[in-house]
Structures are given as C-alpha cells and as structure tokens.
Amino acid sequence: MKYKRILLKLSGEALMGSQNYGIDNDILQQYASDVKRIVDLGVEVAIVIGGGNIFRGIQAEEGGIDRVQGDYMGMLATVINSMALQSALEKKGIQTRLQSAIKMEAICEPFIRRRAVRHLEKGRVVIFGAGTGNPYFTTDTAASLRAIEIEADVIIKGTRVDGIYTADPEKEKDATKFDTLTFAEAYEKELKVMDLTAFTLCQENKVPIVVFDINQPGNLEKIIKGDSIGTLVSV
What we know:
Blueprint: E1 5-10, H1 25-40, E2 44-49, H2 57-62, H3 67-91, E3 96-100, E4 109-110, H4 113-121, E5 125-129, H5 139-149, E6 154-159, E7 164-165, E8 177-178, E9 180-182, H6 183-188, H7 196-204, E10 209-213, H8 219-224, E11 231-234
Parallel strand pairs: 1-2, 1-6, 2-5, 3-4, 3-5, 6-10, 9-11
Antiparallel strand pairs: 7-8, 10-11
Helix pairs in contact: 1-3, 5-7
C-alpha cells in the first residue's frame, strides 16, 4: 500500500448527489462502502467533511447574517454531515469516533490530538467535525490542519471531477488534466486545489494532496494501492 494513514476530505455539496439540498442516502452509502474497503486493508482513516449541502457561512453574509455567526452555523452543518457519515460507517461494522472542534458532549468527543491518534492506531475511523472551531477558516483549512496534527501521509480530496484541470472541466470542454503538479506550479498557474490558507499549510509541512473523483466507486482503494488516479500535488 502506498499510504498507511490518510486524511479524506469530502465536500458537503458532494453529499447532495442529484438533489438541490441535504443528503443523498445512496451517495452516503457509497462513501461508507469505499471507506470500508480501505479500512479492511489496514489503512488508518481520518475524515473531514464540509457542510455546504446544508449551510454556507459566506452565503449567510450575503443574506444579512453576521459573518462570524454564519460561519458558526456552517460549522454546525458539518457536524450534521459527520453524524450521518458516522452512522453509515457503523452500519457497515466500522468503529468510528466523531471529534468536534466545538464542545457538544452529548454527541461527540472534543478534539484532542493524542486521543485522535490513539483511535487511528486502534483501527477506528476518526471524523473531525466543526471545522477548526474558528470563523473565517474553511473546512479545507481544517482538513490541512488535522492532517498535519495526526501526521497523515496524504490528504485525499474527493470532488466531482477526476483531478485538477487547466480550467473548470464542467464549463470548459478543452480543459486539460494534470497528472502531477508541484505546489509551486499549482500556485503559479493559479489552480484552485484548496483555498490559499489550506494550500500553504500543506506546502510548508510537505503534506501531499491527491484530488480525485469520489463519485466513482473503487477510486479511493485504487489510490491507496498506488494507482495513478486523479492529480497528485506534492513538493
């Protein structure tokens, strides 16, 4: 196996599937099945999931809600998604722990780095909810931060497209895909891999990023086994 410990970043929007809002149960089950495959291989898996299918802080600001308040609302949305994913994983027999950057003892543990690492070592999937616990930071930044803290080998970012392109392939038909990129190349070409804060964290701490199509069943397992799926960004 190419990677032993990973941080899987999922977007909340991907959970919508073909819906306009909320959680598509078929998509949720597919993600859980893909994670089970790699857990069965012995991979240590941590997950960060966004909340854009329920609420986005930036959109709230446009509607007149205070930005800080909106960001906290978005963090709570990520916890709802995390709970849904936790339930789907546990129904497949996978032991999980949900840790939140905002204390809510009735439903999840507080984020404690050493405890998270111990859970991973015991084969449990750890889901990190509520972003970084601070406004003005995205779940991309939360994923980068947690990956560094748990010393993950890689961040694997699941998207709706099969890698990083010269332009948005859903809008530009002649966009070309990159198989590999350095952090410097991605920055120079102004490619949107992650937001700049998250990207810089990964670059400075030499954490590679793989961007791939999460909606293609089996792709995650192929990446773990070393297949050239998606786009690899590294030093």
